[in-house]
Amino acid sequence: MIAMAIAAMEDDYARDFMTGIYIKYYDIMLGKAKAMLENEEDAEEVIQDIFLDLIERVGTVMSVDPKKLPSYLMAAVRNSSMSKIRKRMVRREHTLLIDEDDSLEWIKDESALPEDVYIKNEEIDEIAKALSLLPENDRTVLEDKYILEMSDEEIGKALGITPAGVRTRLFRARRKAYAIMKEGAEK
Amino acid sequence: MSVKKHRLSNMDIREEYEDFVFKKVMLRYSELESEKIRQENSKNAALDSETAEKRKKEIKKLIRRNKMKNGLRFFFSASKKVITAAAMVVLAAAVSLGTSVVASAEVRESIADYLYSLNAVRHDTHTSVSASANKEAFFDLESYGDDCGFAPTFMPEGYEKDEELGQYSYSNGETYFHISQSENGASHLDTERAQKVEVVRIGESKGILVQKDEITSVTWSCGIWLLSVRGTATEEDIIKVARGLRVNPGIEKEEIIYDWQKYIAFDYFYWEDAWIPTYMPDGYEADYDIKEAVEDFSYIRTVTFDSGTSYIKIEERYSDGLSGYHSMNPIFYYDEINEYSAEIKTENGITYVLFEPDWYVMIRVYGTAPKEELIKVAESMEYAPIISENSDYDLYNWEGAWITYLPDWYEFEIVDISEENGKHSFRYEDGKYYVLFEQKKVDAEPFDFSGMDPFDERIIDFEHPHAGATGTMPLTKYQYDNGTDIAVTYAQTGEVLETEYVFEDTWLRFESNLPLSDFQRVVWNTERKPKTNEFVDVELYDWADSWAPTYMPYGAKLISAEWIDGIRVHTYELLGKKIILKFSYEETDFGIGEREWEYNFDVTISGCDAKSCYNLYDDFYSMMTWSNGELYICVEGDYELMSMIDIARSIRKIQGNYPLY
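Above: the input entities. Below: the structure tokens describing the complete assembly.
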């Protein structure tokens, strides 16, 4: 299906580009989706959807800095997998994986990132490394926002929360990352 | 309690600050993550190279199929004598597909250029196509496989192939570029808010250079290829790489040889477009009784090889595309024969190997021979086109006649010739099939579409074989760009197929009970009889010492031949359109620069670069000017562009004329 969709692309340059992605990253993307979804069929479906979406937005994808392309793709996998998990949870009438707390009230109690603390340039590298230790949920929302450059509305739709909820999650994710970085530094 | 948003609240400022910081964090994260993924990928690279290759092939195959499905979307009118053998293969494919052609004049012109440039020679035992190139000058040639026409001969210092970035990508660690090429392709140039858009010369072509943000791209066409080099490398390097692209010797240097003698039982596979086995197990002999059948407009031919104890049958089904595919019902293939999708199964002691080497032919090798042998035979099948020619030239003994083509695997004989009110009719029969071919000069009278019902189910195709353009619904008149009205139909009446149309000054009609694919061959290969006089109106060119056109479209009438301001001007008219030839010893651009043009295009005429422009939407006017070293020449007018190019290209030095002064 993916190969057919790529082959049907009219622009040769774009088709070459997508062929490259398919050849190089399909397996690793599928592996990631499988690990997240614990279901091969769902994982294949997610990857297929991602490729169809990438083909549709190939102009944007081609403008991604090639050095950052792999992480862009993985962010897309995480995003779609999370979305799938959410749908699955809703379908099974289980508790939502994502909490629905839209208020920003809790921020007041968060003290991980005091307001008078400013992040130094050298800490950026450390926080970036700390991100890989973040729970999948938090990382996904950061990736959606900053790598896939999705709007709050789009992220909300994918994760099944409101745009305000997205902002909340972003706050929390950023602070968690900072906390992990600090924890690591203290150790 | 909710937090109210104020324009400059601490919370907002804080959020903006974090947002800013995290943009940087995520950029860095992205780089680290990508590096990790790359490393992970490279570990698996060796294991997965086979899978990667398989995927590449799968996509290539699908692309090829898509291309076939969409038809070879071009056709150009040129004499069969001029078209090379390689071109004939292409045309044969187009014929069999029954698809016509949508191509811009430029594309057709470049295709024509390409085909003219091919050097194909048909020998008694083989056909060869050759070109030369210096293999040693190429970089990274192994990356440019069979599907690539061009490979780089210049590589900026420090750049190396970078597969991370794509198949034809190179980088020096910091900047990169990518080479892309497509056959008969199209490209989208994003010039919106570009910093720079310029025309640059790439070899004999003009390319468009676009600089937008960090990306520089150069896009140009060369023959049927659309090429582009694009990336963050410097403009200078990108242009140099572009200028250094050369025809991949891997494709064209070696001779492509159809070696007729190597095929097993060549004589049995006598039809055009035949696929022929090059392997047959010992002891199997071909049976002369070749089975022929027609199903769903497909022609099926079966050749049987027998060893006395077991047999191998080779069945080839030629169809007009989908019908054959579906009627055999192997919609899902799980096996492969020479990269082609295939189905291999054994039932009741008979093994079937079914594969589709092309969109319009299916081959089934089956029999009671061992399965391995049947697969070997299937794998040995090769395409060996036979180019048929019509030998009825003598029957069409008037100037401007169209001569029909009859596939030589039938034994057609002429049974009736008649002429009434200028309408010539020829009826051919071979005992089972017949072909009725009629033609009449119509003096530019448009074809009458009024009796045709666009919803008539008998109409099964709207393609037109000669115009190089797709037709349209019969009630909506399609006007071809030389002003000719065209009717297009392959209308089916029971077992009978008909088509009629007007091309240039002639109405043509075909009627036959042949299978559709062969009927299409007949129609597509019908051609205008070459004009007996090689030179056109030689006496008109007595004023010049050497140069005259040797081709002029049929029906073109000379309106005037006069001197205007020291320029010799010959004006012809055809179907209400003008063809004007101008000659001058004095340097002049014949006013081409003073007009506003919709398009400029590159065309080589007699080895010279001509300045060439045309309008497509305004008045369909074209103009080409060039100098052959002796004269300044201009061909202009509102006649069909391809013909104008043909006229320009036909201008030759002729003997026996007198100098101008």
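Note for the figure: The longest strand of chain B covers residues 298-306.
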